[in-house]
TrEMBL record:
Pfam families: ParB_N. Residues 14-27 have a biased composition (Basic and acidic residues). Residues 78-181 form the ParB-like N-terminal domain. Residues 1-29, 293-320 are annotated as: Disordered. This is ParB/RepB/Spo0J family partition protein.
Amino acid sequence: MARRRKLQAPSAEDLTRLEEEFRRETPMKGAMAPIAQVAADAAGQSPVVDAAAREKLAKDSADADRLRDAESKGLVMTEVPLDQIDMNDMIRDRASVDQVELSELIDSISANSLRLPVELYRLKQPGDGKTYGVVSGYRRLLALKHLHDQTGESKFATAKSLIKPIESVPEAFVAMVEENEIRSQLSHFERGRIAVVSTQNGAFETVEDAVRKLFASASKSKRSKVRSFAHVFEELGDLLGFADQLTEKQGLRLASTLRMGHTQELREAMASRQPANSEEEWLCLLPVVESAEEGPKDQSRGGRPKSASRPKPGTGRLKSLCAGEPVVLSRDEDEQGILLRFQGKGASKELVDAAIDELRALLGN
């Protein structure tokens, strides 16, 4: 049977030796907690920053915050390449671009570069490399594009731009209209047209809604006029060649005639027309407008009977020669005198001869 080994307590020398070995194999860095030790090590490795450097860092941080805030508000001007701008993302409120004014703008930008920045907005669905749409500055961009196409110079390849924080298509239309209302007054027809077109493009539910939001700052009477011109554009916009030159009075008379149910007569009056200017175009419409304004005569009204006026001779003959077809009269002038021009399907030699006979009779010739 094996004998049990007798255990002996270690001596003081043994304990001292063991403690020294433990300390040698496990170095200690003080009595601080581990996380405190990590922080101390990191601080020891970081460079020492003096007060001036700390002040500069704080200023740089504040400047960066201000820049980000200004950019978010569309207050920072930047250079945007023309090929990143979608010129056709939005239907413009201008019905046409005056070529003379555009030519003058091209000459100005060519000589002095682009003085005023254009206003853009980020497209919700960028495509074909296009990132931005146009709020204002459409003509300036056209001029820049023309110059770049003609010269190829890099200074015309970008546009000074402000990126506006616009979140929706209706906002973009409102911003565009407000900009043009401030810088250069839109015509009555252009106001009505953009209300209809923006509605057709889905920006607004109805034309009424478009007028109310696009011209929110306008007076009640002005919005009423815009609605009238919008009605003219809806019914006759495809036939009128000089609609943007309609005066306020002419547009309101047209709208009133349309509301009285004379749309077809107006369209027929324009069907075969080829007016050379706004005056001739209005003369095509005027007979229908005047007939509608005169209205049907009420034979039941009492009062003193009016003396019967002698019917104009030949009126029935002239109408029969027209055979119900439209005839447009216009005036011209040359070195020999004033000319009358007969146009339309109803114009014929017989009609002209009959009209000459009537004029001679009225003049006593």
